[in-house]
Amino acid sequence: MFFLVNLLHFSHYFFFLDLPVNITILGPGAVGSLWACYLQKAGHNVSLWTRSSTPSELSLSLNAKDNSSHSFSCNDKDSLIHCDLLFITVKAWQVESALLPLLPLLSQETILLFMHNGMGAIDAIKAHINHHPVLQATTTHGALKESSHTIKHTGMGHTVIGPFNASGNQCQFLQNVLEHSLPSIEWNPGIDIALWKKLAINCAINPLTAIHQCKNGQLSQPDINQDVIHVCTEVHQVLQKEDIEWEEIELVSMVNQVISATSENYSSMNRDCFHKRKTEIDFITGYLLQKAKQHGISTPINETLYNQIKQLEENLL
Ligand code: PAF
User: Fold this and answer.
1) Which segment of 6-15, 54-63, 209-218, 280-289 scores lowest on mean pLDDT?
2) Which of 157, 189, 221 is the last residue of a domain?
3) CB–CB of 57/27 below 8 Å?
4) Which of 189, 223, 238 is the last residue of a domain?
5) Which of 265, 270, 284 to mutate to test the pocket of ligand 1 (most atoms within 8 A of CB)?
6) Given this model, what pLDDT does residue 4 score?
7) 62: number of CA atoms within 13 Å, CB side?
8) Which residues of 160-190 are buried (b: 16+ CB within 10 A; e: fewer)?
9) Does 160 share its domain with 45?
10) What is the CATH number of the domain that holds 272?
11) What's a Gene Ontology MF term here (predicted)?
């Protein structure tokens, strides 16, 4: 199905054909592995691209009870060269180093779909990728890599996809490809609004849960919840300047809903600090601070949290 993008203009017909799509997942961590399993279950040709070049095959089982194990080729150049869709699920800070070396192998028609926490990573490499159709996505599905071979789908969620560039805007048909694999999917031409809202939630939850080394639910305790609200007040000022229409009260209420819905979970930044890994802070709070500076807004609380996480990273790494 290498000619997928040649069919862009006929994509509505392509759909009815219901043909398998050649997909490579770059970065099969928890989220990437979850999508790999569901996309393969739906009949697509899925291969993986990992950091290490050693394994040529990887089997993954989705949820411990699921007997069906999914087998994928790994780091197979031929699959990469012929992929219609490169689904990039590495962390924001890995995007540049993971993707740039692969670009010479790709057809210009390969669709690039990015899914990660935070903002700014794609802008940084825009000049290298703008000849591809580029899409962005954000999801609320919960996934946990229980072992190198087992993925747990910890919570059903919703995924929003939308275009990053003009040719990405012709790829709405991907909504159906993904919908048949892991629903529900929403096509949103103004994806930036969804990304900003996710970033706002991450600014409020991730640094605090990493600094206090606590589960998300602990942020509902009155003393820490005060900090959550102060973060939201600053974030809201930036959102206003970015023309994101979201009342502060709605933002706080959404953050508290996420805290309660994920109360038993550890945030991704909490886990990164716990496992002594680099965090996504530069693309979450760091991105917010950059935008605040451009708009001349003072954000002392977010600055303090940013510096605390950078300090933690320095001590841990
Ligand atoms: O990064 C995370 O962990 C998640 O995006 C969220 C929403 C904070 C829930 O843990």
Assistant:
1) 6-15
2) 189
3) no
4) 189
5) 265
6) 53
7) 20
8) bbbbbbebbeebbbbbbbbebbbeebebbee
9) yes
10) 1.10.1040.10
11) NADP binding
Mean pLDDT lowest for which of 18-27, 85-94, 124-133, 298-307? Answer: 18-27
The CB of 267 under 6 Å from ligand 1? The reply is yes
Ligand 1 proximity of 258 Cβ (cutoff 6 Å): yes
Q: Give yes or no: residues 92 and 176 share one domain.
A: yes
How many domains would you assign to the chain?
A: 2
In the reported structure, the alpha carbon of residue 220 is separated from the centroid of ligand 1 by a whole-number distance in angstroms of: 15
Q: For residue 19, what pLDDT is reported?
A: 85
Q: Does any ligand 1 atom lie closer than 6 A to the CB of residue 262?
A: yes
Asked if 184 and 237 sit in the same domain, the reply is no
Please give the structure tokens belonging to residue 69: 């194990």
Q: How does pLDDT run across 264-286, given as a tens digit for each residue?
A: 999 999 999 999 999 999 999 99
Question: What is the bridge-based pairing of β-strands 85-88 and 111-115?
Answer: parallel
Å from CA of 266 to ligand 1 middle: 8
> Are residues 126 and 10 located together in one domain of the fold?
yes
Domain hosting residue 63, numbered range: 4-189
Question: Which pTM value belongs to this model?
Answer: 0.93
Q: How far is the CA of 202 from the centre of ligand 1 (A)?
A: 6
Q: Best substitution site from 34, 91, 117 to test ligand 1's pocket, by max atoms within 8 Å of Cβ?
A: 117
The answer to whether the beta carbons of residues 127 and 147 sit under 8 Å apart is: no
Q: Summarize pLDDT for 35-93 with one digit per residue, the tens.
A: 999 999 999 999 999 987 666 899 999 986 666 789 999 999 999 999 999 999 999 99
